[in-house]
Amino acid sequence: MLQPVLQSFQVKRELYAPLNAADRAGQIVRRLSDAVALGLLQPGDRLPAETDLAEAFEVAPATVREALARLRDARVIETRRGRNGGSFIVEAPIESAEQRAGRLHSYSTIDLRDLGDEWAMITTACVRLAQDRHDHTDIERLKHDVTRFENAPSLSLRNQHYSRFWIDLAVTAQSARLLSHQMRIQFEIAALLWPEHRDTNDLNAAVNRMHDIITAIGHPHSPTETVVNEVIRRDSRFLIAEKLRIERASIRQKGIDR
Q1: Is 41:33 a contact under the CB 8 Å cutoff?
Q2: Tens of pLDDT along 179-216?
């Protein structure tokens, strides 16, 4: 079974995977910011050296320097000089309500539905593989994720622990490809799912279904797909409803401004 060090290697391999062609500096900023927001990188962690980042992301060193400068400006990292210097995580970036609204606005309702379908398929596959590949420490880690999610003292931590559950589930599946897909999905939606105004009933339902998923890992013949679909479809419906709510409010505000 995977040991903690190897699990960390898996996640970081996906975190520092090569980028797409467009706005590579912006992609580095977004990926590292999202990684901090998800708790994959913690305050005090030192980033790899610029040359190592450039090699991992398959970009020019100048692109990495531009991205790091943006992260410094946003106070996500600080750069220290000297023998033990480097770029260190300072704190998690906190998205404003306007930034979250902008993220949701960039999706159509069909996009959000399709994203939910993809998330459910990836997660179902993770559970099925985890049924054969898990050990006791995997189960305890997932239970710990649920407890931290349920008792999170802040909005940012609630979103962080929720996304971490799904990433740890993919780690338990021991599939690099599924982990890559799950991390990409969590980077997209991590900050959107648990705003302060979301119904407490949704929180309780999510906790119950997450425990059901953990139980399903230990029972290969359990209705895995049904359990996964229930929690993820609830999230998908929430995102669609939230997008429509924000857009209706924007239309009303424009009417008032006129």
Answers
A1: no
A2: 999 999 998 888 899 988 899 999 999 999 999 999 99
Distance, in Å, from the CA atom of 121 to the CA atom of 161, rounded to the nearest integer, reads: 21
CB 205 within 8 A of CB 149: no
For the chain, where are the E strands, in sequence order? 77-80, 86-89
Which tokens hold the place of 101?
């609204």
Residue 231's nearest CA partner among 252, 206, 253 is 206
SS3 of 79, please?
strand
Domains of the chain and CATH, by start? 4-89 (1.10.10.10), 97-257 (1.20.120.530)
Report the largest interatomic distance among the alpha carbons of the chain, rounded to a whole angstrom: 62
Residue holding tokens 């799950």? 182
Percent of the chain residues past pLDDT 70, beyond the cut: 94
Query: Could you give the dihedral angle defined by the CA atoms of residues 56, 61, 65 and 71, in that order, rounded to the nearest 10 degrees?
Result: -10
Q: What is the pTM of this model?
A: 0.84
